[in-house]
C-alpha cells in the first residue's frame, strides 16, 4: 500500500507494482489514522515524507516554514510509526525505514530550519531503536546527500532555474539509488539491523563540498 498527498502520481506507481494508492498527508493526524485503519498488516514502513523550505538565516527565520518542516520531517515520521507499530510488531519481522538527510549529521549556512528538523528526526529514530530492543522490529535510517528530485524545487518555492542550479556541473544521486538502499536493507535476514546508511554522489564530500566540472 502506498500513501502520499499527490494521489494522481501515486496511482501510476501503484499500477506498476500492483499496489494500492491512498491519499495520505503525514502532517494531518486524521489522514494518518485513516490510512493506518485500512492496513490489515504491515511488515515494512518506509517514511519518505519530508522536505525543506527556504534558505533564510536564523535572524530572518520564517516560523511557519520551520513549523511545516518539523511537522513533515519529525512529527510525520513519528505519527506514521506510532500508528503502524502494533502491526509491525505483530508481523513478527517488522522494519521501520526512514529517509533522513546528511543534514542530520552536518550543519551548513542557510539550512537552519531543515537541519534542526533532520537532527530531531534522526534523534527520534535512535531513541526508537532503544525502545524496541527485544521486539521483532528493525530500524534503519537512510541519509542521502544530493538527490535530484523535486526537493530543491519545493525548497525554492517552484523556482525551477534555482533548483536546477543546485545540481549544475555534477552528477547527483537519483531516487532509484536511494530506493536500492531501502531494498538492500530490507532484504537482509531479520537478525541483521542496518542502523544507518549515509549515501552521497561521488561528486559530493560534505553538504557544501561539491565537485562541479563547469564551475557552477
Would you mind describing this structure in some detail?
The chain has 216 residues and is α/β, with parallel strands linked by helices. It is built from 7 helices and 6 strands; from the N terminus they run E-H-E-H-E-H-E-H-E-H-H-H-E. Strand 1 (2-4), helix 1 (7-17) and strand 2 (21-23) form a beta-alpha-beta unit. The protein is globular, with a radius of gyration of 17 Å.
Count helical runs.
7
Instruction: Indicate the low-confidence ranges by residue numbers.
Output: none
Rg from Cα: 17 Å
- Shape, please? globular
Report the helical percentage.
Answer: 40-55%
State the strand order across the main sheet: 3-4-5-6
Compose a concise summary of this entry.
By secondary structure, this protein is an alpha/beta fold. Helix content is 43%, strand content 13%. The chain has seven helices and six strands, in the order E-H-E-H-E-H-E-H-E-H-H-H-E.
Secondary structure layout:
Layout: E1 2-4, H1 7-17, E2 21-23, H2 29-37, E3 44-47, H3 63-90, E4 94-99, H4 112-131, E5 137-144, H5 151-155, H6 160-166, H7 175-187, E6 196-199
Parallel strand pairs: 1-2, 3-4, 4-5, 5-6
Helix pairs in contact: 2-3, 3-4
Features:
6 strands, about 15% strand, four-stranded parallel sheet, two-stranded parallel sheet, about 220 residues, globular, 7 helices, alpha/beta
